[in-house]
Please model this.
Amino acid sequence: MNCLHDKQSFAFASDNYAGVHPEIMQALLVANDGHQPAYGADVYTLALQQKIKQLFGETAEAFPVFNGTGANVTALQSLLPRWGAVICAESAHIQCDEGVAPEHLAGVKLLTIPTANGKLTPQLVSKQAWGFGVEHRAQPAVVYISQSTELGTCYSVAEIRALSDYCHQHNMKLYIDGARLANALVAENTDVKTMITATGVDMLNLGGTKNGLLQGECIISMHPDTHASMPYLRKINAQLGAKMRFISAQFLAWFEHDLWLNLAANSNQMATRLANALDEIEEITVTQQTQANAVFAVLPAHARAKLHQQFHFYDWDESKGEVRWMTSFDTTEKQVDTFIAAIKQALVQT
Model:
């Protein structure tokens, strides 16, 4: 097949724009030869189970799935009673970026809370954690957070532990959407046993698609009492892969020699490089702390229009002139510097 795109093109719209890391592509080729049992009975998925236990603890169980929305829907269903509700930030991914999937597929009521930086605290959660035992109110059962958040900020280990303690004191579960968990681990300079296992997180989605994988996410159930329902929920949500070995093999290669963390480190560093340069430009205001691989900034409308002619990126809040720029595992210093030069040029009035 002929190549249909410019191989030198790059964007700052989403880390989903990036391709597949060569080591991940090689892992797919290795897993491709010969026959293996279907639906997760293959040797790669069995090896992934052991790797997840090594990383997260012996009680952890891995359930590879196709995509993030499917992971969130399936995981939340496993944690919720039929009458349960999910507390989340107003800017949460399940609220803003998954259509009506949580409501339509999972049957979930979302109880949202405004936040300035995309992060919840026990004090904020308490605004929706009420009405327990009242039949007229959906019962708060799960607190959902993203790590990193939709605004590029990260929860510290202490902040996650405080949320987990609050949830468990109120008979709720804590679920982490870890589509960019690797970025948060690097930003907080810690590991998953410290950030996830030791803090008491009940379930999470470990995302790989945004960080070098071709396709694939992995739901991780941290406690045996939630393991049993997962195979059935994964099936009814159309997230059971017949050739699961190709998802699992990617994760195995991703974990090898800390590739996942190294890729995340690059995307974080490139975002920091961009944010630091923007701080020197008077006409631009960075609106969120740049901790992971997202930069949020306000710039004049004429500059945004010019930049859109050259690069793909998202207008985040048009009423404020705020944009979101994302860096990826394969973003280079040269690309960032080229983009910075384009920004400066776009700010020049003609």
The chain has a mean pLDDT of 96.
